[in-house]
Amino acid sequence: MRRLSYFFHRVVRIDRKRMADTMDVLVERSGKSRAWLLADMLRCAVKYNAGYMDYKIAQMWKLDDRQKRTVITRGISNDIVRRMNDKSYWHFFDDKTQFNTLFADHVRRKWVLITPDTDLGRLEDITAAGKPLIGKPLEGSSGQGILKYQPDDWAEGMEAFRAKLLADGIGILEEIVIQHPDMAALCPTSVNTCRIATLLGDKKQGIVYAFLRIGNGKVMDNVDCGGMAARIDLDSGMLLTVGADKAGNTYEKHPMTGTPIVGFNIPYWEEAKAMCLEAAQKVPQMRFVAWDVAITPDGPTFIEGNSFPSHAVPQFAAHYPDGIGILPEFEKFIDLK
Asked: In angstroms, rounded to a whole number, what is the distance separating the alpha carbons of residues 74 and 53?
């Protein structure tokens, strides 16, 4: 009953233009007819809670039923989050100031809450080094609303700078994370972060998956901002797969730097895992958290934690060449039936 309810809820709210555009792409890529794709897509929606973007990202037209059952679709992902995470505790992750305060030992950078009453002395302190800063909305995801500020932005004084930040919708101003030179070698325009998901399951607890998100010319590494992702081997910290973006493009080497992606080793990988596993116990009511971890010359540091992890990044078809998706990894931690 819940599956059908979710299906009809999605049908009512569907973005018809975006779906039509997606269908055009699918016809071109799959070689299938529009009628065949629509029928298969509807079947996947009812049977596997798959939306049209799930269908596109996982390239479900290529998969048989055995393979389709292993895809983590939006509906399945929503159910996992609903079961694992007590919504009354989401605020520790959704509000960036609360996150930075709670996990201060692993954030390790200056930051200032921006309000009409923000002390100008605190702005003077964070701008004193004359280095670029990052401004973020208090809530949000996918890199939306994040802006970079240069010394010219505060050249007219702290009061004018505070007014500018407020006008830009900025809720928190932070020092920029300086990433490890090896990470910058992949893409220097963005801080390339590890997405490490911890799961406090009934069967076992630990890391359920990890991906490296890599920028492609923009300030952010998010796939919604044109970035790409590659799977990280949990034991070694080595990238196992090509980089893949949300449009379905794949890269063996980074298109900007030429740095090989497959076989790249994440510095301080053991330290990054240990940090996430320790942090996962801090709010045990949040049993499924995706941590965004930057690797600096001195070790790992948190960028943020996600109370409602995106299911898109861990489900790109290029990362599962055998067609077996990531759902079996979740089943090692929790019962999905």
From this structure: 9
The answer to whether 91 touches 98, Cβ cutoff 8 Å, is yes
Indicate where the chain has its CATH 3.30.470.20 domain(s). 84-96+179-331
Buried b (16+ CB within 10 A) or exposed e, 251-260: beebeeeeee
Which residues sit opposite 198 in a β-bridge? 207, 289
Enumerate the CATH 3.30.1490 domain ranges in the chain, comma separated: 110-175
Rounded to the nearest 5 percent, the helix, strand and coil shares of the chain are 40, 20, 40
Segment 280-315, tens digit of pLDDT:
999 999 999 999 999 999 999 999 999 999 888 888
Say which residue the tokens 């992606």 belong to. 261
The pTM of the full predicted model, rounded to 2 decimals, is 0.89
Q: Report how far residue 60's alpha carbon sits from residue 37's, in angstroms, rounded to the nearest whole number.
A: 10
Quick one: CATH architecture of 110-175? 2-Layer Sandwich (3.30)
CA angle 65, 68, 70 (to 5 degrees): 120
- Give pLDDT tens digits for 150-184: 999 999 999 999 999 999 999 999 999 999 999 99
The highest-level CATH class for domain 84-96+179-331 is: alpha beta
Alpha-carbon separation of residue 218 from 140, 147, 222, 244, 277 (angstroms): 18, 11, 9, 16, 30
